[in-house]
Amino acid sequence: MKTSFPKIRQNLGVPLTGPERKVLGFLALLTLTGLAVLLLKSFLGAENPLWVQPGPKEETLKRPPQSYPAFAPKTNPAPASVDLNRADERELTRVPKVGPVMAKRIVEYRRKIGAFKNISQLRNVSGIGAKKFQQMAPCFFIRPESAVK
After folding, report:
1. Which of 15, 33, 45, 149 could join 115 via S-S bond, C-beta 3.0 to 4.6 A?
2. To the nearest 10°, the Cα dihedral for 115, 121, 127, 131?
3. Residue range(s) in the chain whose domain bears CATH number 1.10.150.320
4. With contact defined as beta carbons under 8 Å apart, do 85 and 144 qualify?
5. CATH number of the structural domain 82-147
6. C-beta atoms surrounding 146 within 10 Å
């Protein structure tokens, strides 16, 4: 019988015998099977293996989407809504893109001008550019009575 692996023989430099080819074929098959199982587990989620069948169809329809983590919707918590003229440094840090240093700058600028008249005045605070302002602005509001000082 003629060998169907002449290139493998040339690349290895040593001819493979029949049993060696069988062992290599078995190891390759075993590796591919293991990879397929890992891929399937990651696709379905670790707590929902394929071999566990759900109960009646009604139960599968009522199951919340969190039971399949791969398909669960990605949600971010709603950003804080903060009054720009009343918030202290701690409250300001609840807003995305506002850390302790930025909160201190906002409070210092507010003291300097008296009170914010509109949210676009945040652009005058050092370190707040157009992009950061776009991300932060929806999280702030100004009460009309707090703007007059």
Report:
1. 149
2. 140
3. 82-147
4. no
5. 1.10.150.320
6. 14
Look-up of token digits 């999280």: 139
CA distances from 84 to 118, 147, 149 (A): 9, 9, 14
Per the structure block, which two tokens stand in for 107? 């409070």
One-letter identity of residue 42:
S
pTM here is 0.47
Give the containing element (helix H, strand E) for 141. Answer: strand 140-141
